[in-house]
Fold this protein.
Amino acid sequence: MQLLKEFLLNDSCSYLDDKEQISYYKVIEGCSTHYCQELIERGYRRFGKMYFRPVCQGCDACESIKIDVANFNFSKSARRVLRKASALHTTVQRPHLSQEHLDLFEKYHKHMHLKKGWDYNQPTPEHYYSSFVTGAGEFGYEVLYFDDEKLIGVDLIDILEDGISSIYFYYDPDYAEYSLGRLSLYNQIRYAKEANLSWIYLGYYVKECPSLSYKADYKPFVTLQGRPLESEPFIWK
């Protein structure tokens, strides 16, 4: 394992309008499962070889959040989602890149650009590969959702020592009737229960950001207190 570089990046906030964002980045080659766990527990997110977390001064709107798997109960609504999608099938494998992946990724982001005003940039194989394929180590996987032979969803996850870190999910908007975003999370929880894993790490919860505020619907959950250094203990409550 090798730390290639670390740096701070100032930019406009990804989650709240009219705010600036300062993020701390680590770029790690060959990250171990244990070290990935250590970073995720302290509020980092992973994309490719890059680990980052916000360090904005005077703002704590971004809260790291994780679902308490053992105490999560599937509601009637959740069970309906699971039943409705029973005809779909999944494959779990190591992350990879294909034209099918790129086409679905582009279709999803064009849809979200129109629906929610997300920024849209033409995806490239290089960007996709560096974000979702490299850096997976021994812990990174993708869960592929199919309707017959058609790829309709890709759920990128890390399976860590005590839980699943949910990285990114994209899907075919033509299949909205299946509530694929909720379905993917329910399936993560089901797997974690079967594997005796304690947590689903959901990244950042931001109350005022519609794209992230939904995470508080998955109860019970706990949030990370402060921004502990690697040499410091962490507290979730």
